[in-house]
Structures
1.
Amino acid sequence: MGACCSNLCFCLWPSNIKSHVLYSSDIENWAENEQLNLPAFKEYGLEELKAATSSFSVNNIVSEHGEKAPNVVFKGRLNGNGRWIAIKRFQSSAWPDSRQFLDEAKTVGQLRSKRLANLLGCCCQGDERLLVAEFMPHETLSKHLFHWDNRPLDWVMRLRVAFYLAQALDYCSSKGRELYHDLNSYRVLFDQDCNPRLSCFGLMKNSRDGKSYSTNLAFTPPEYLKTGKVTPESVVYSFGALLLDLLSGKHIPPSHALDLIRGKNFLMLIDSCLEGHFSNDDGAELVQLASRCLQYEPHDRPNVKSLLTSLTSLQKEKDVPSNVLMSIAHETTSPTQVSLTPLGEACSKCDLTAIHEILEKTGYKEDEGIANELSFQMWANQIQETLNTRKSGDSAFRDKDFTTAIKCYTQFLEGGNVKSPTVLARRSLCYLMIKKPQEALADAMQAQVQFSNWPTAFYLQTAALFTLGMDSDARETLRDGLSLDFRRMRQ
C-alpha cells in the first residue's frame, strides 16, 4: 500500500491515463462463465410475498429512506425454500400499465451476473407492482462509506468496489441494458461474501414517476436537467460521482470537487480516515478518472469499457477475500454455498417436516455413551413407568401429535434423573411445530449442555433463532454446528 498522498500530482486530461491490456477472461468472459445457483425468473403470488414479509411489516423495511420513500424495499424469506429476498414495492401510480411492468421486469430478469443483485421475479396483482431480487445481507455502500461504526472502508476495498461496479455496468451494456437510473451509493450492495454488487432495481425506471433521479440536483447529470432523459453518458457521470464518494468518504457535489481539482486542492478530496494508507499513483489516477467522468459535455466522458480498462490496473490484493478486507466474519447463508448435512440444511431452511423425518429416522443412537444413569430408586420403582412414558412420547412424535408428545416427553424428563439429549431435541421440534420457538430454543440449548459436541443441538437452535427473527445469531450457530459436523467427518 504505501506512502501518504502529500506529493500527489498529475495532468488533468486523458493523455496520461495508462493503457492496459485486458485478457478476455478478466473482462469479457468472467460473467458468462460463472455458475450462478439462481432460479429462473418467475411471477410470484401476492400472498406468497405477504407471507415472506409478515404482510409487509414496517419491521422488514430495509431501504435506507424508510417507509416514507416512494418505493419501499422489504426484506423477506420465502416459505418454500427459505431463500432470503429483497422486495421493492412501488406506489400504485408508478406502473399503471401492468403489461409494460411485466415486460420490463422479465427483460431485466434475464440478466444473471455475480456483479448484480439479480432480479428473481415480480408480482403484478391488482394495484400491486413488486420486484423480487436477491437479498444482500451486508447493507449499502452508503452505510460503509458515510455511516461506518468500527472502521472506515479500506482503500483496496474502495478500488474493488469501483472495479466490480464497472464490471456490472459493462455486463449490463453487453446485454443491451446500458441505462441505469440514479446510480448512487445506495444502489451498491454487499453480498454474503462482502463482494459489492449493483442493485438490479436501478435497471427499471418508473413509467410515471416524473423523474429518474431522486438525489439532490447537484448530483444530477447536466444533460438530464436539460432534456429529462438518461443516456449512457449520464450513467458515466453518476459513476464519476460515486468515485468521489469512494475517494472522500463524503457525498461531495461534483461541481465543488472539480473546482478543487482545477485549483490543485484535490488533496482535500481524499478521506482523512485513510490516514495515508493508499498509493500516491492510485489516488492520482482515481481522481483523474473521476474528473473525466464528470465533464460537462457528455462526449468528453469515457465509456464504460474505458473505465474498466483504467480500473483493472488499480486492483490490489486480489486473492484477499472482500470480507477480510472489510473485517467482517464470513456469513454462511445458504446450503447451496456450503456442504451442510441434511439436518443442517433442513434447519437452515426451517423445513420442519424434513427435520421431523430425520430425527425420527436417527432415533436414540446419539444417546449412547452419554451419562444416562438411573438412580437406584428409579431402578427399583420407576424404571418401567419412565420408559413407558418416553415410548408414548415417541409414538405421538411419530404420529405428529406434537402436543401429546410434549406432554409425555416433559413427564419423562421430570420423572427422574434420565439424561436424554434426543428427547430434548424431539421436544424442541415439537415446540417449533406448535409455534413456540422460545421454548424450542431452550430445549435445544439444554441438549447442548448435556452433549456439548452434538451438531443436532446447534442446528435446532439455528431453526429456533431464525423463527425468532434472530438471523445473525442463527447463522453463527449454524456455523458452529457445521464445524462440529466437519470435525466428526475427519475423525
2.
Amino acid sequence: MYIEDVLIDEKLTELQNFYYGQNILITGGTGFLGKILLNKLFTACPGIDQIYMLVRQKKNSNVTKRLEEIFNDPIFDTMKMMKPKFRHHIISVPGDCMLPDLGLSPEDRRILIENVNIVFHMAATVRFDEKLKIAMQINAAAARDIMLLCNEMKNLKSCLHVSTAYSYCPQARIEEKFYAAPGDTKNLILLTECTPDKLLDTVAEDIVKTFGKNLPVGVFRPGIVISTYNEPVSGWIDNFYGPTGVIAGAATGIIRTVRCRPHGFADMVPVDMCVNSIIAASWDIAKKYNSTVTLKENGEKLTQTPKVYNFCSSKENKITWGDFTNKTANYGTLYPTTKAIWYICYANRPNRIMHLLSIFCLHYLPATILDCFSLIMGKKPRLLKTYKKIHRFMHVIEYFAMRQWDFGIDNVRDLWNSLSERDKELFFFDMNQLDWDRFLQQYILGVRRYLLKDPIETMPEALSRWNRLYWMHQIAKIAVFITLAQIAFFIFLKIF
C-alpha cells in the first residue's frame, strides 16, 4: 500500500475503510433502491475502485445508454459535484435476470469472478401480483445464479441478497432467521416451468441459504420502502408502488376511500435509511465471516449460516395506518397540487361492505357520469378505465394494510449499536430516531414534486385552485344531501 493510501485510511471510518479500493457488483442498480445505493456509495465511501452494474438491454436502448439515462435524475446532482469523475468508476455489464446464468457472456462472467469483492443483489420484481413463473425466474432463479457466481469469485468479501420483510407473511411473528421452504428449492424452479401460476410461492431466501452456505452471505429484509428522509434530498421518490400510489391518488382527488386497519402498524421505512443499513450490513457480514474463518483456522469446525436483517419500524417508534392516512390527508391539504381534479377527502374504512359501498358511490358513480359527459362532448372517456386500474392496485395494498406482523429487529439494532459515532452520522438508519411528522410532510411534498411533476413554485396557483375545489366539494355535499332528503320525503309520502 502506498503512503498516501495509508494517510487516507487513517482518516476513514471503519465502515468506509471496508469499501476503500473494493470492486462492487450491483444487480437492480437502475431501480429505486439501486439509485440511492449508488449515490450513497459515491458520496460517503471514498476510494471505491469499480462498480459493475448488471443492466438489461431494452429495445432501441443499449446498456450504456440506459445507464446514462438514470444519472439524469436530479438526485444525482450533489453526487456529480462531489465526484465529477464518477462515471470512470462504473462499468455497465449486459445481463438479464430472466435469462439463464443472468444472461452474462463468458468474458463478462470471467471479469466478475476475477475482480468483484462485494455483491449487492437487489434485482427483483416488486409486484405482489406478479405471475408466478416470472417471479420465480427473477426472484428465485436469479438468486441461485448469483450464489453460483459468488461461489466462483476469488476475492469475495460480502454478498447481500435484498429480500422483503413480507417473504414469510403467513407468519404472525417474523424473526431474523430462515423459515422452511414449501419444498426442495433446487427442484421448485424447474417445477414452475410446467406448473399453474398460483400453485407455488417464491423461495429466493431458501435458495440463498442453500447455495450460499459457507460464503460471506446475508439476507436483508426491508419493510415497505417509500421516499427519502434526508439524503440526497428529502422526500425523493420515483415510483407509485406501495402506499405511494394511494397517496398520489388521494392528493389529486381521485381516491376517496381506502381500506386499512386503523390501529395496525404500518411498517414503512425511508429508502435512504434502508440503503444506509444495507451498506452497514454488508460490512457486518464480512466482519462476522472473517471471525468464523479465524475460528476454523484454530481447529474449531463451524458452519456459516447466512445472517438475516429485518429492517422495519422500531417497536418504540411505530405509526399506525390510521395515523398515516390522517397525517397524509392533513399535509395534502397544506400542500395541494395544481393537478388535483377534486378536493382531497379520503377516509379509512376498514369495514369491507362500507368500503365497497364508498367505491361505488364515490368512485364509479361520479366516473360514470363524467365519462358520459365526455362522450357527449366528443371526448374519450377515461375515468372508469382509470379506476379499474387503481382498484386492482388498492386491492394488493389492502392485504398488507389489513394485517399485522411482529418483526424481530435484533440483528439490525445490534448492527446500529456496533457502529462508531462517526459511522452513525454518515450512515444513519436508527428507526427509533425517525421523526414521522417531518418524514410524512416531506413525503407528501416529494409525491407532489417528483411524481406529479408539480414544482413548489406553483403553490399559490394550487392554493387558489384548492379553494375553488373546496367550495365545489361543499356545494356537492349539500346537493347530495338535498337530493337524498327529497327522495326520502317522496318515499315517506308514498308509504304514509
